[in-house]
Specification:
globular
Length: 309
């Protein structure tokens, strides 16, 4: 390497290390203060799928005689991973602010987070049986809603909606436990895998399905009832982003749609804003909706008439 190249590399490294260029882009590592690990969370989701759908995921040799053994091993592994990752999420969210606010030593704050992470991990694992019951209704909805589906096993093994909903429902349980950061990582993993983008803060009822799935977006403050079906390319988004006096977006306000029970939204339709789509309504394909829709309403595109020449 010649001197001019070495000088250039040193100069660029110095620019990239300058504090002025790092505002909000740099997470400074401290010993004992890890970031959540996507590879470890991927392992956690593999374990969740193996416990929620045994035989379809995880060990293929599972049977009724050895299931409890495999379930116990997976549960222990999942508990250990979730303790570590939840603690990392708590560290990321708090940083030094918590230490300074309570006058703690860093070691005592870490020990407190470790205990809290273990409590949250236990609470999460206790929710898995109920979570499986809900996912079973999603499998039913996908199977009975698609004439091409030949078995529940095919739906569980192949359909992207079940993979996305498994991640979403796991992440949503963590949201309900106030676990920071990790839920969003888990749903974004499913987004990358399936093309289905569901924010973990959204609320979704049972018997939910998405046919095909690619390109679906469900925003953070969406509320979706039971027996709702979406098709590919549907967006449940926000119409606008209100700002405060400083021009910054106001966080945490309801800005996404409410879909009541038994709503169907066909492909590539966009529903924006805090509006309500009434129960049993049907939104046709390629429709733009920004106002409330009454229960039982059917909205379709009107064909344009062309005079004969």
């Amino acid at each position: 390497m010649n001197i001019s190249t070495q000088t250039m590399l040193t100069d660029v490294a110095a620019q990239l290390s300058h504090p002025d260029s790092l505002q909000g882009l740099f997470h400074e590592h401290r010993d004992g203060d890890p970031l959540p690990s996507q590879p470890e969370l991927a392992k956690a989701m593999d374990l969740c799928r193996s416990m929620l759908f045994p035989g379809f995921y995880g060990k293929s040799t599972v049977n009724t005689h050895n299931l409890i053994y495999h379930m116990g091993v997976a549960m222990e592994r999942l508990y250990c991973i979730m303790c570590e990752q939840i603690q990392a999420g708590l560290c990321f969210a708090a940083g030094w602010s918590e230490v300074e606010a309570y006058g703690q030593t860093y070691a005592s704050a870490q020990e407190q987070r470790k205990r809290k992470a273990a409590q949250l991990a236990r609470a999460f694992l206790q929710r898995l049986p109920a979570l499986r019951q809900t996912l079973a209704t999603d499998v039913e909805a996908a199977y009975f809603g698609d004439p091409a589906a030949e078995s529940f096993g095919e739906v569980i093994s192949c359909y992207p909606v079940i993979k996305a909903l498994t991640n979403y429902r796991v992440a949503h349980e963590l949201v309900m436990l106030d676990v920071p950061l990790i839920p969003r990582i888990i749903t974004e993993m499913a987004h990358s895998e399936t093309g289905i983008d569901i924010h973990p803060n959204a609320t979704i009822g049972d018997h939910f399905t998405i046919d095909h799935g690619t390109g679906v977006v469900i925003g953070a403050t969406c509320i979706i009832g039971s027996h709702v079906k979406l098709y590919q390319g549907v967006t449940l988004g926000a119409k606008s982003f209100p700002t405060d006096d400083s021009g910054n977006p106001i966080k945490g306000i309801p800005r996404h749609p409410i879909l009541e029970d038994c709503v169907i939204v066909y492909a590539n339709s966009t529903i924006l804003g805090r509006i309500t789509i009434g129960h049993d309504a049907v939104i046709g394909g390629n429709i733009w909706v920004t106002e409330d829709v009454a229960p039982g309403t059917r909205i379709i595109q009107h064909k344009a008439s062309h005079p004969r020449g």
